[in-house]
Amino acid sequence: MPTHLIQQHEPNGVLRFNTPIGSDQVTAFVSESSLRARYGGVPAAADDLQSMYSLHQLEINAAVARRIRAGARQPVVLRASDL
Asked: What is the reported pTM?
């Protein structure tokens, strides 16, 4: 299911997004450093947070779902170890 909101927060390199979990939309944050630690980079023409998120959206959304099932509250902040 697609994410409905992607918004990059400047200048701190954090991506804010909503992901559907059941009938709810869960707000989550992930930093550029966490994404790069897990996935490396993306092709230079698309080297930005939204592109990195788009390439790995299903896995990132699954990490949010795991955190919610484990008892995390909104907003969920993902770390590299969550991904």
From this structure: 0.82
